[in-house]
Amino acid sequence: MRWPWPLVLIRGSALAVGLLSLTVTMWTGLEERGAALAFGMLVLVGELARWSGGQAREAAPLGAAGALSYALLGQDAGRPSHHGALQAVAVVLAACLLGSVPHIALGRGATLDHLARRILTVFFAAVCFQPLYGKGVFRGWGGPAYALLLLALLVLTALCGAVLAAVPAHCRTRWPFGPLLREELRGLLGIGSAVCATGAVMALAVAVVGLWALPVFSLPLLLTQLSFRRYAAVRDTYRQTIASLARATEVAGYTPAGHARRVAALSRAVGRDLGLTEPELTVLEHAALMHDIGQLSLVDPVPAGATAGLPVAEQRRIALLGGAVVRQTGVSREVAVVVERQADPCREQPLPARIVRAVNAYDEKARDAGPGGPLRALEELRLATAGDYAPEVVESLARVLSRDCLTLPATG
Fold it and tell me: How far apart are CA 217 and CA 355, in angstroms?
């Protein structure tokens, strides 16, 4: 398997920095071994508690905060530190490797990309701070000025980390880089800001009171991570409940098996291609799962559940019935609105409703049309963009399908 060149560049740079740091540190020996051991243990605990869920912007926030605080550590209880940038990377790398052993054994997450991101962000922060601090450039900085300096360096490091997280995701999924980077930057306002603040506070506290500050200031971030896990578990249960409700039409024989799941997965991919945010993608996915639930109110089922070929008035009636059912289930109002408006005139629909409408029509047209069905279905959607389907949605659908190795006809 050939890796894309941006992924090769990131992993190769991380490998070179890691090997250089380990070699130099083993050759020269550890400076301030107590501090190195304390920060290494903190990063190790953070890595062992790494969150492997797909919703997490920062998989190991405690490890990230500990690594960055060690990279920006200038003093230990009033005594200047001399560990340097390469030792900071070496200690963090050793702790990350030890902490990754259980995750590798269980096959969790993208460990290589996680390690590369951690190495390069710590190296960036340490190179920006340690040489200048060692030369006494920041000796006269005190109080708020010094704290603002650390925060500024951490913000720059977080921006660097966002790019390093978006590039592997782009190479792995082939989704557009711009929306992925915007999503990573939005994530900095959440857990990213907590990591930066905790890293700065740790570095400042250790400089005044020593290493005893580490367990005190790491506890809130660890509790935050545990709370996030519980929140993610609740969201997973909520989504499973919606998926179970969506299967009611399949169990009752109104729609073919797997139709709702296919429409939801393809709608989410199209929404991501069009730059929707993560909350908007969640609403879109839930609406796509439940877009046919209005058929449960019909006395006579639609043949094969194909609503795209029905008269417009009948489509709107089924959509309104579906919206009423969604509202009674307690699902969010935004989902009900998308379900209700999926049969409205195209120019009056919100973007999520346009996506669900086009993807539903594509799946209905393509599923029973044989090997050439996907191409014919897409061409039919393109011919109907004058009034029934949004052109930008159809072309986004074509891009998503082309990334899945489907040969597409030329536009026009």
Answer: 46
| 198 touches 218 (CB < 8 A) | yes
Tokens of 343: 């049969």
> Token pair of 352, please?
């999520």
Global confidence as pTM: 0.79
Which run of H or E residues covers position 298?
Answer: none
Which sign, positive or negative, has the C-alpha torsion 212, 215, 216, 221? positive
Lookup: tokens for 219:
């506890």
Distance between CA atoms of 332 and 352, rounded to whole angstroms? 14
Residue (of 89, 80, 5) closest to 40 by Cα position: 89
The neighbouring-strand residues paired with 80 are: 75
- Look at 280 and 302; give whichever has higher pLDDT: 280
Q: What is the pLDDT of residues 136-173, one digit of tens each?
A: 777 777 778 888 888 889 989 989 988 998 888 888 77
69, 125 in Cβ contact below 8 A? no
| Closest among 117, 202, 201, 116 to 159, alpha carbons compared | 117
Confidence of residue 259 (pLDDT cuts 50, 70, 90): confident
Mode of pairing for the β-strands spanning 75-76 and 79-80: antiparallel
